[in-house]
Every structure is written in C-alpha cells, then in structure tokens.
Automatic annotation (TrEMBL):
Residues 12-47, 48-83 form the EF-hand domain. The lineage of its organism: Eukaryota, Metazoa, Spiralia, Lophotrochozoa, Brachiopoda. Coiled coil: none annotated. The gene is LOC106175012. Keywords: Calcium. The keyword Protein biosynthesis does not apply. This is Probable calcium-binding protein CML27. Pfam families: EF-hand_7. GO terms for molecular function: calcium ion binding. InterPro entries: EF-hand-dom_pair, EF_Hand_1_Ca_BS, EF_hand_dom.
Amino acid sequence: MLAEHFPGLSLSLILDAEKRFTSADTNGDQVIDLSEMDNILTANNMMFTKKQLEEILESIDTDKNGYLDFLEVLTVIERLSSNKRSKLSPHLQTATKSATCSIQ
C-alpha cells in the first residue's frame, strides 16, 4: 500500500522513516503531537517558537486532527525529496532535508 501511495520513496527510506517515527512517538499512540515534534526538532538543534511549531504542524496535518500520523510524515518526506515544498510551512520550506526528515 505504501509503495502505491509513495512511488518516489524507496522501501529502505520508508522503513527508516517508520523506525524513526516509532522512536519519536514517545507515548506510543501512533501519532506525533506538538510536544513530541518539539522534542524531535530540539534534539536536532532546530529551535522554533510554539507558534512556529503550531504552524508547521498545521501545514502537515492534512486531516486537521492536531497530530501527525505516519502517512502525513511520509507526505512531507516525499515533498522534500521531490522539491514540492510549496504546500509546506515556510519554516519547513527553508529547513534542510536531513533536519526536516528527523520529524519522523
């Protein structure tokens, strides 16, 4: 299923993203919340205000439930890897690929 939805992403990249996503999901609820996203970005030396974090989350959260699920994270990775940054938060558009992919 993932290969059909994300044909531009290699299996190894998807598996690595899943491993990182699971690690980042500290409470095990299978979504990344604002606090978990802040922890990930801070651990990767990326500092954002709470408002910036909220804007980033809102730009990625396609179902608008306030959380990032794995498919939403893969969508960001796919956009970054194919340079389709226009629908991302301005804070993510200028971030480096390696730092932004740490969101998983």
